């Protein structure tokens, strides 16, 4: 196969100067050097592109359905509106790639690096994104119905308007992610809240090396993100003890704000409580449900 000739003919076809569309169906292009190649609109159905170098390549509107792109380097590639239905992109490098409107239904993206990728309006329904790096990726209005996002890194990702119905987000990192108007249903697997969703409950926090026992009232706003740590908008201080449970005075200062004091019998409140549960380290009274967790917390 004369790959250079095929690419030259394809370029002529794209420019309306004769030539012919690249037909690389089921072609063996493993380890191929296609850096910066123009394969816009090419037919690569079922092609073997394992470990190929496709950095900065133009694959927009290309047919890559059922293609093998395992470990391929697609950093900065243009895959907008490409057909990647059922493609194997496991472990592929797609950092900064443009996948706007791409068809990735049922694609295998396990462990793929999609840091900063543009997946806006992409169809990722039933795609496997287990352990994928989607940090700072644009997934706005993407269809992730039934997608497997277990253990995926979605920190700072834009999920505005994304469809996550029936998706599995267990152990995913959603810190600083934009989840405004994200669509989900009862079958979407999230991290369950670590604190009771309603009613009052007892919590414990560490402050200046001491353990503060808190009563979080029924009307307090509360949340938890991806760990056992919870946040609440207000709490009543019940006791202050040392690590061994011995009384340790009537008040103690917060580790982060010396002007925020926990005093036995008093109710403390955070007026600027952050309702975005995925901002784990944001404003609120941080605490645990068990005393043991507060004791070991550093």
Helices and strands in order, then pairings?
Elements: H1 3-14, E1 201-207, E2 210-216, E3 222-224, E4 230-232, E5 234-241, E6 251-253, E7 261-263, E8 267-269, E9 285-287, H2 291-296
Antiparallel strand pairs: 1-2, 2-5, 3-4, 4-9, 5-8, 6-7
Protein name: Pentapeptide repeat-containing protein
InterPro entries: 5peptide_repeat, DUF5758, Pentapeptide-BTB/POZ_domain
Give me some keywords for this one.
single chain, 298 residues, mainly beta, Pectate Lyase C-like, 2 domains, four-stranded antiparallel beta sheet, three-stranded antiparallel beta sheet, 2 helices, Pentapeptide-BTB/POZ_domain, DUF5758, 5peptide_repeat, Pentapeptide repeat-containing protein
Structure, described:
With 298 residues, this protein is mainly beta. The chain folds into 2 domains: 190 residues, 3 Solenoid (Pectate Lyase C-like); 96 residues, no CATH class. Helix content is 6%, strand content 13%. The strands form 3 sheets. It has a 4-stranded antiparallel β-sheet with strand order 1-2-5-8. A 3-stranded antiparallel β-sheet has the order 3-4-9, with no helix packed on it. The chain has a two-stranded antiparallel sheet with strand order 6-7. A hairpin with a 5-residue loop joins strand 3 and strand 4. The termini are far apart.
């Amino acid at each position: 196969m004369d790959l250079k000739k095929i690419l030259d003919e394809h370029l002529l076809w794209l420019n309306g100067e004769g030539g012919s569309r690249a037909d690389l169906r089921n072609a063996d292009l493993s380890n191929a050097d296609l850096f910066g190649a123009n394969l816009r609109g090419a037919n690569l159905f079922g092609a073997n592109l394992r470990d190929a170098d496709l950095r900065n390549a133009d694959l927009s509107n290309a047919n890559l359905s059922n293609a093998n792109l395992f470990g391929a380097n697609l950093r900065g590639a243009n895959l907008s509106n490409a057909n990647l239905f059922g493609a194997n992109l496991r472990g592929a490098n797609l950092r900064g790639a443009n996948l706007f409107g791409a068809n990735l239904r049922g694609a295998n993206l396990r462990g793929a690096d999609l840091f900063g990728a543009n997946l806006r309006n992409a169809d990722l329904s039933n795609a496997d994104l287990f352990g994928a790096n989607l940090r700072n990726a644009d997934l706005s209005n993407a269809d992730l119905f039934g997608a497997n996002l277990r253990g995926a890194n979605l920190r700072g990702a834009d999920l505005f308007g994304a469809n996550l119905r029936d998706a599995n987000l267990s152990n995913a990192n959603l810190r600083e992610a934009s989840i405004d108007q994200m669509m989900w249903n009862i079958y979407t697997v999230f991290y369950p809240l670590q604190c009771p969703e309603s009613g009052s409950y007892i919590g414990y926090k560490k402050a200046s090396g001491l353990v503060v026992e808190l009563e979080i009232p029924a009307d307090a706003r509360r949340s938890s993100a991806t760990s056992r740590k919870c946040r609440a908008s207000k709490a009543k201080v019940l006791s202050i003890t040392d690590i061994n449970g011995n009384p340790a005075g009537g008040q103690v200062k917060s580790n982060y704000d010396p002007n925020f004091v926990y005093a036995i019998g008093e109710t403390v409140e955070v007026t600027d409580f952050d309702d975005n549960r995925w901002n784990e380290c944001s404003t609120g009274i941080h605490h645990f449900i068990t005393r043991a967790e507060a004791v070991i917390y550093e």
